[in-house]
Design brief:
five-stranded mixed beta sheet; 10 helices; binds 5'-O-[(R)-(carboxyoxy)(hydroxy)phosphoryl]adenosine; Nucleotidyltransferase, domain 5; 2 domains; globular; alpha/beta; binds zinc ion; 40% helix
């Protein structure tokens, strides 16, 4: 691979269509030239969650206009693209096929190679797009809608899972609790907003696996405890939410958020202690949570640990992280882009399968 090259990245694994252009110049941290995003939240809101078929169709509608927008904003043309990257998985099969199909069609018509990226590796490396990029090695707390993992990261493709959720992910705990409180979809940001006005000590909720001797998480019990509490307050089958005083709802939201955040913070600190690393990277949608950031920053500062986050806009799904992960894999030489144009997506794809052996 030549030292300087331009990567187009396409993300379409769930309910966001993202396209971005990243420039690699030698061994420096690749730079983001432009990115564009279309969120399908409004479209899915009416159904209370993501409808896969609608998601796929909307990706089809959005992906080419977003590509044109990114090229125009970066004053580039299709001829300037050296590699086309796409999210290969995990995610919704039909949605993934849109991004991979478009990427392979673009690559084939331009005679440029393509590269399928692991969505979670995109999240993991997204802080390298920030003004304050991390340095390897670091501990990563990966908290997305479907995954909660603590990892030791020694380089691109060198990921060791230290602990992960045995049931629900932290994002799911936010989303499911939000649904119980009548907050709809997407629940995480709505619950966080409501929690701002609430008392986090108002309700005693469990901190699952907090005292366990490993770095695994479990959030399913928390969701059940929130449900029991909601029932006690008279909330059943999604009705009567409006009948509750605002401060009661806010208190329950704040208590739920506090339980999730405390577990994430404490386990991250144990991971830092066990690895003796002084750098923490937080990535994935839940990494946008203000309370999580405040508490991690405070606890890390006490221990001389630096915490790195993606830019707020790049915490949730986007094309920039896909272009970036492809750029870094190519730059580090652990993978080459291919002209096979086999858009074989992997809706289920464990992150440890993309590791390089040290
Ligand atoms: O990484 P992401 O965009 O998608 C996946 O790859 O899953 O993460 C989405 C998750 C959802 O569960 C959403 O509710 C949660 O991130 N989320 C938040 C916040 N923003 C997004 N959770 C708590 N507080 C937030 N501010
Ligand atoms: Zn994601």
């Amino acid at each position: 691979m030549v030292k300087n090259f331009c990567v187009l990245g396409i993300e379409s694994s769930c309910d966001e269509t993202g396209v971005a252009l990243v420039q690699v110049s030698g061994q420096g941290v690749p730079t983001l030239l432009a990115h564009a995003l279309h969120s399908q939240i409004e479209m899915h809101q009416a159904y209370g969650g993501v409808v896969p078929e609608l998601a796929s169709r909307d990706h089809i509608r959005r992906v080419l206009p977003l590509t044109q927008q990114v090229l125009a904003e970066s004053s580039r043309t299709l001829k300037d693209l050296d590699v086309v990257a796409f999210t290969r998985g995990p995610g919704l099969a039909g949605a993934l096929l849109v991004g991979s199909g478009v990427a392979c069609a673009l690559g084939a018509s331009l005679q440029k190679p393509v590269l399928g990226v692991h969505h979670l590796e995109g999240h993991l490396l997204s802080p390298f797009l920030s003004a304050d990029p991390p340095k390897f090695p670091f501990v990563a707390l990966l908290v997305s809608g479907g995954h909660t993992q603590l990892m030791r990261v020694d380089g691109v493709g060198r990921y060791q899972i230290l602990g992960e959720t045995i049931d629900d992910a932290a994002g799911e705990a936010f989303d499911k609790s939000a649904k119980l409180l009548g907050l709809g979809y997407p629940g995480g940001p709505a619950l966080a907003r409501l929690a701002e006005a609430g008392n986090p000590l108002a309700y005693k909720l469990p901190r699952p696996l907090l005292q366990s001797d490993n770095l695994d998480f479990s959030f399913a019990g928390l969701k059940t405890a929130v449900m029991m509490q909601a029932k006690k307050l008279g909330l059943a089958q999604g009705c009567a939410v409006e009948a509750l005083p605002d401060d009661v709802l806010a208190d329950l939201a704040a208590s739920t958020q506090a339980a999730i955040v405390e577990v994430l913070v404490k386990k991250s600190l144990v991971a830092l202690q066990e690895t003796q690393l002084k750098r923490l990277v937080v990535a994935g949608g839940v990494g946008a949570n203000a309370s999580l950031r405040t508490q991690l920053n405070a606890e890390s500062a006490k221990r001389g640990v630096r915490v790195h986050y993606p830019e707020l806009l790049l915490c949730t799904d986007n094309g920039a992280m896909i272009a970036m992960a492809a750029a870094m894999r190519l730059q580090s030489g652990i993978q080459a882009a291919s002209k096979a144009y086999a858009f074989d997506v992997r809706p289920r794809w464990p992150l440890d399968l993309i590791q390089v052996t040290a």
